[in-house]
Amino acid sequence: MAMTHLVRWAARAPAPVYAAIGPGRQAEVERLLTRPGLNRAKTPRDAAILLVAGDLPSSSLDALNRLHDQLPRPRTTLRWLDGDQEAIAHRITTALRALCDGAAGEDDRLPDTPANEWKGIGPHGQGGKGMMGGTPYGRPMAMTGKDVRDGLQLDRYTTRVGPFAPMLPPGLVLEVTLQGDVICEASVQAAPFAQPAEADAPALCAARMLRLLGLDAAADRVIRGRPLRAAWVTGAVPRGLARINDTDARDRLSAWLRSRTVTVAPPDLAALLPGSEWSEAMLILASLPPSALIRAARATEAA
Amino acid sequence: MQAVIVILGWTAFAVVLARALQPAANSTAPQAAPFLGGGTPDMHAWQRFHFRPYSMSLLFIAFEMEMMFMYPWAVVFVSEGIKALAEMGMFLAILSVGILYGWREGIFRWQ
Amino acid sequence: MTALLVLAVLATLLGGTVLAALMDRAALPLAALLTRQRVETEAPDRMNRDLSSAWYLALAAIGLSVVPFAPGLALIDSPVGIVIWGSCEALVVVTVFLHGWSPNAPFPLIGAYRYAAIGLPIMLPSMFVLIAAALPAESLSLIDIVESQREIWNVLRQPLGLPLFLVVALAMTLRGPMDYADAADIATGTSAEESGAARALWQVARLAMLVSISAIAATVFLGGPLGPVLPGPVWLWLKTAALMALTVWIGNRVARTTPDRMLTILWVVLLPLSFLGLIIAGVMAL
């Protein structure tokens, strides 16, 4: 009884969609996800529907499979190839209803074998010597190294983020080494997917920064061309972030909020990101128009 | 005594509720990988994390201790009158110098 | 009487959480979460993962228990009610940290340490404004603090108290400009790896904490159950609901800055402001 009520409510809830955005589709997806019946999930763990927009290059298919498997069951993948917003919104709600009606959903795409076999030594499988290092569950522990800010020798954590990370531009794969939440090293493994000029639209660029500032509702309003209705917006962006051609991130955000297009020379990402704290780094990336960011990343990737 | 019973009671209630509402977690191997937008990590996330505002936490301890003196002070404030106000004013003034010094030294920044 | 008060706390928490979910437009999404699988990360700390939501919920209930529902009538009738609430606040920081620590994943871990950095200093202005409210009452008991507001509410004679406490409320409920644990740039931080019922329970605990801290604020600054005509609990509920709505509104409309800037603002602006609030309260109480 309680279960049937729950299922009925679940079917009426906004559809939680996690978007894997392909080449050329960023602007369309960002506009689509402001529709009332759709909810833009910030992590696949919160989503039921994986929206794959556009033709993904074969190099990112492994990443897509990993992302797909991280959605909780029951889940559905929808591919969106044409630009028809009405049709895809309808397909999303139908798919959600089918899941609520007990559709089995999709199985994993990757084999159910641990990426890292248990090969521990010792009672906890830590396998290392003393308190340092070791490879519990076959995955190494972080080890100490120099820091860029205060030179303390603490653990360095290396990972690749992207190409479908919600805080990064679609397609961008960054390999970062973090110490705490500060980026010590960063390199571009794959440049963002090419996007048409529409992705540089002031409203969309402003909305990307607003989401990082925790203003989701304001971001949706800006995309729909309504007034902003939020306080301390530009003031919340620190001064001097990613200063290029005499404008910093705060200047670019205020220009976008006044519906002005911003053009900047592509910066050197490998020099821009190391040394910044994670949230600053995400603001820096969001404060660059996609066209400039793509050119910057391609130059870094080639180098 | 009642306070202790109520606190323990709510804690037990919340634990039972959490147990009842949350089904057992289960994952296949690819589901269990940490979310990185499709990326893969080289290592476990648990680490000797570089907590950047560590010098701030020392100043915080000073203020936490100060708070303990304020509880009894608040109760006798009205009966002690202007003397209590002056005493706490001096105490806070000294601590404020500590804030200013720490600010100048940059302890509120991410080191 | 005790049984009635237990029921009152439970009903307030339950009704308030539903109201908060409606204010956040989160009611249907929360129900939907319960229909999905609860995933588990690689080699997590299972005990802390399972218990962190329970602690958060328990702290909300304990905090609400020191609130008087009618003049002179609270479930925990303690002479040090403010201290009990203060320890609830401190333990919220620990709970959020454990929630971020337990999944063994990078984004939750960053959220956990970030929240520790912001959550520690936010407790200082919180306790300063609460102690300021204790001055005219000559007591740390919330019952006495309500009695001391018979003539004039603290929100009027201590004008800095409520605005500062609302900032604390935003931090304790992981909301808007003070949501350093579950921020968007780390894919909802400490809850980034949680799905299904576990995710729903964490959100419910956040909403319950909103009820609890709003009730404390209503008691300390708006006279709690005091008011004409209507019975005490009704006044408390009305004031709590109004403060909940205000907190939600501010949370949706104020931008969040980077954590290191917020840390500086907390120490250099908010803490001196709370000193000033204490001096004003002290002079007014004499």
UniProtKB/TrEMBL annotation, chain A:
Superkingdom per UniProt: Bacteria
Region Disordered, annotated ranges: 110-130
The protein, known as: Uncharacterized protein
UniProtKB/TrEMBL annotation, chain B:
InterPro entries registered for this protein in UniProt: NADH_UbQ/plastoQ_OxRdtase_su3 (IPR000440), NDAH_ubi_oxred_su3_sf (IPR038430)
GO cellular component entries: NADH dehydrogenase complex; plasma membrane
Keyword annotations from UniProtKB, A to Z: Membrane, NAD, Oxidoreductase, Quinone, Transmembrane, Transmembrane helix, Transport
Molecular function in Gene Ontology: NADH dehydrogenase (ubiquinone) activity; oxidoreductase activity; quinone binding
Catalytic activity: a quinone + NADH + 5 H(+)(in) = a quinol + NAD(+) + 4 H(+)(out)
Transmembrane intervals: 56-78, 85-103
Transmembrane helix among keywords: yes
A Pfam family assignment: Oxidored_q4
Function: NDH-1 shuttles electrons from NADH, via FMN and iron-sulfur (Fe-S) centers, to quinones in the respiratory chain.
Annotated protein name in UniProt: NADH-quinone oxidoreductase subunit
Source organism: Palleronia abyssalis
Gene expressing this chain: ndhC_3
UniProtKB/TrEMBL annotation, chain C:
Compartments, as annotated in UniProt: Cell membrane; Membrane
Record EC number: 1.6.5.11
Membrane-related topology note: Multi-pass membrane protein
GO biological process: aerobic respiration
Highest taxon listed in the record's lineage: Bacteria
GO CC annotations, alphabetized: plasma membrane
InterPro entries assigned: NADH_UbQ_OxRdtase_su1/FPO
Listed transmembrane segments: 54-75, 82-101, 113-135, 204-222, 234-251, 263-285
Keyword hit for NAD: yes
Keywords, sorted A to Z: Membrane, NAD, Oxidoreductase, Transmembrane, Transmembrane helix
Protein name: NADH-quinone oxidoreductase subunit H
Organism, as annotated: Palleronia abyssalis
Lineage: Bacteria, Pseudomonadati, Pseudomonadota, Alphaproteobacteria, Rhodobacterales
